[in-house]
Input
Amino acid sequence: MILAEPSQFIKQYIEELNISLEQYQPGAGLTFTQKTWLIFCLTGILMVNAVCQAKFERASLGEYKIAALSWMFRNGKILWEKSLIASVMHILKKYGITNGVLILDESDRARSKNTKRIHKVHKQKHKAGGGYVNGQTVVLLLLVTESITVPVGFKFYMPDPAVSAWNKEEKRLKKKRDSEEEASCLTGI
Output
């Protein structure tokens, strides 16, 4: 198995994260299974340079199956938001970081024209092809310091359907008005 033994620094980080979680919210610590899964996933990210469960399965030579990895992600009862907060607090404390600037960064991720079942997928202008494609917009909140840049939050953005409908109706009415004005100019000549 390629992912047989995780790096010592990953094991240490997960233990420190668990301690930070317990300090941040008592009772929110990680179970042995959750720690093992997180260690495997972080090792997988390091080894395959991607966040992809299929690649993790291949790198483990089938030892860990996609279904099991996916199940743990969806049903593992990990407090993800608390884990992110505890992780950022731990990193800031460990490296003595006391100041920085918060920056928002968004990026569009094109998926497919017929994708409907992915979280917060919506119609986007495809910049490379010029047409439209379904995709996701990921908005990251980053803390930029003199020494490091740390992601401190993220959300998936989706346009409000009411605003989208209003814009569509506004565009239709403007087009109708412009064509009526053009018709009245032609008949007035």
